[in-house]
């Protein structure tokens, strides 16, 4: 099976990398199930996909709620009879120095970036086992490889995501594929997530200088999906050439 007719669920599909991935995969023939908290934005993405002849549905999904991931997977099976790919892309990045003690934001990053991914695995793995096929694609970050000031907690969550996905790959067996994508600086609203004004200004400035468009990450996801079933693209790093 190439892309045509694959059933792909994407979390964090309401903007940025998730939105770009939804649009590209739909253009290449996949059937989409889109999740995020902002339903109005999801409805807009679905409308744009349908306008160009694609197929997509959406449901409000908060990845910190285990039951929402089960509902996302259930919607795929109800509408299309199966789930071929789960793209766990939702992420939170309110970065700040540890001295700020923005502990609620630390919680949010752990809950969305780490537990959100685990909730997706818990919902999709039994389905992939039953189908004897499936593909986990997870958006990590180059922060998993290099920690810089203000990014300790965020980088910690992405290191955890890398470890979880590698463990998943080792346990997955021959019928389930596991791909982790590590974007560098991508031009999305993510740079404005910090509630520390100085950090936000610095990161947004750097983004406007060097970031690459979200479509660059979408193409990497498509590449992994389009490989033959026995080819598992495990780790893909996509960063701006200008990123150190
Ligand atoms: N931009 C970068 O430079 C960069 C670099 C490396 C990695 N990443 C990773 O890329 C992924 C996507 O980020 P982005 O850059 O595309 O930024 P973005 O446009 O802000 O997208 C973040 C997405 O995550 C969703 N989200 C946040 N909390 C959620 C929750 N509790 N439940 C469900 N969805 C939630 C948001 O949707 P709602 O608000 O509608 O729920 C949104 O669709 C993240 O995992 C991020 O860590 C980004």
Task: Give an account of the 3D structure.
This protein is of the alpha/beta class and 244 residues long. It has a single domain, classed as NAD(P)-binding Rossmann-like Domain (Rossmann fold), CATH 3.40.50.720. The chain has helices at 16-27, 39-51, 66-80, 103-131, 152-172, 197-210, 215-225, and strands at residues 7-11, 31-36, 55-60, 85-88, 134-139, 176-183, 235-238. A 7-stranded parallel beta sheet has the order 3-2-1-4-5-6-7, with helices on both faces. Helix 2 (39-51) links the parallel strand 2 (31-36) and strand 3 (55-60). Helix 3 runs parallel beside helix 4 (103-131). NADP nicotinamide-adenine-dinucleotide phosphate binds next to helix 1.
Q: Would you summarize the structure shown here?
A:
With 244 residues, this protein is of the alpha/beta class.
Topology of this protein?
Layout lengths: L6 E5 L4 H12 L3 E6 L2 H13 L3 E6 L5 H15 L4 E4 L14 H29 L2 E6 L12 H21 L3 E8 L13 H14 L4 H11 L9 E4 L6
Parallel strand pairs: 1-2, 1-4, 2-3, 4-5, 5-6, 6-7
NADP nicotinamide-adenine-dinucleotide phosphate (NAP) binds next to helix 1.
Number of domains: 1
Give the cofactors and ligands: NADP nicotinamide-adenine-dinucleotide phosphate
Mean pLDDT: 97
CA gyration radius, whole angstroms: 17 Å
CATH superfamily: NAD(P)-binding Rossmann-like Domain
Largest sheet: 7 strands, parallel
Head-to-tail CA distance between termini: 38 Å
CATH topology: Rossmann fold
SS-derived structural category: alpha/beta
The CATH class is identified as Alpha Beta
Strand content: 15-25%
- The coarse overall form would be globular
Helix content: 40-55%
User: Strands across the major sheet, in which order?
Assistant: 3-2-1-4-5-6-7
Named at the architecture level, the CATH assignment is 3-Layer(aba) Sandwich
């Amino acid at each position: 099976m190439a892309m045509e007719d694959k059933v792909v669920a994407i979390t964090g599909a309401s903007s940025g990398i998730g939105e770009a991935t939804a649009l590209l995969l739909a253009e290449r023939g996949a059937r989409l199930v889109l999740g995020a908290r902002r339903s109005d934005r999801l409805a807009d993405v679905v409308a744009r996909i349908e306008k160009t002849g694609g197929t997509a549905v959406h449901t409000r999904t908060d990845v910190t709620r285990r039951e929402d991931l089960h509902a996302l997977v259930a919607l795929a099976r109800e509408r299309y009879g199966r789930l071929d790919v789960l793209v766990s892309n939702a992420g939170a990045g309110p970065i700040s120095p540890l001295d700020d003690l923005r502990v609620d934001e630390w919680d949010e990053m752990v809950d969305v970036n780490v537990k959100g991914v685990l909730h997706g695995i818990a919902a999709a793995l039994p389905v992939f086992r039953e189908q004897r096929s499936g593909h986990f694609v997870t958006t990590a970050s180059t922060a998993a490889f290099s920690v810089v000031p203000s990014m300790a907690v965020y980088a910690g969550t992405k290191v955890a995501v890398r470890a979880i996905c590698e463990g998943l790959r080792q346990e997955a067996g021959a019928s389930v594929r596991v791909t982790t994508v590590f974007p560098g600086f991508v031009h999305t609203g993510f740079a404005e997530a910090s509630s520390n004004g100085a950090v936000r200004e610095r990161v947004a400035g750097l983004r406007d200088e060097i970031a690459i468009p979200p479509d660059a990450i979408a193409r990497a996801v498509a590449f992994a999906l389009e490989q033959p079933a026995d080819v598992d693209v495990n780790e893909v790093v996509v960063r701006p050439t200008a990123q150190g």
